[in-house]
Write a structure and sequence with these properties.
There is one protein chain. By secondary structure, the protein is mostly helical. The chain has a domain of 38 residues. It contains 3 helices and no strands. 2% of the residues are buried.
Length: 58
């Protein structure tokens, strides 16, 4: 899917969530998050641990 479509769909879902009851709001926000995860590039296995290593003092 196109990135603009995914961003637009996620925003539409968030707009609906703002008007929904609490139960439906949570489900809609979860759905919007699912769409947004599609935009994140997959992380390679070699770089995942690098994010959690402490930085050296400079």
């Amino acid at each position: 899917m196109d990135e603009n479509f995914i961003r637009g769909r996620a925003q539409d879902i968030r707009d609906l969530a703002a008007k929904a009851d609490p139960f439906t709001r949570k489900r809609l926000l979860d759905l919007a998050a699912t769409y947004e995860r599609r935009l994140d590039p997959p992380h390679s296995a070699g770089t995942v641990g690098a994010r959690f290593q402490p930085q050296a003092n400079r």
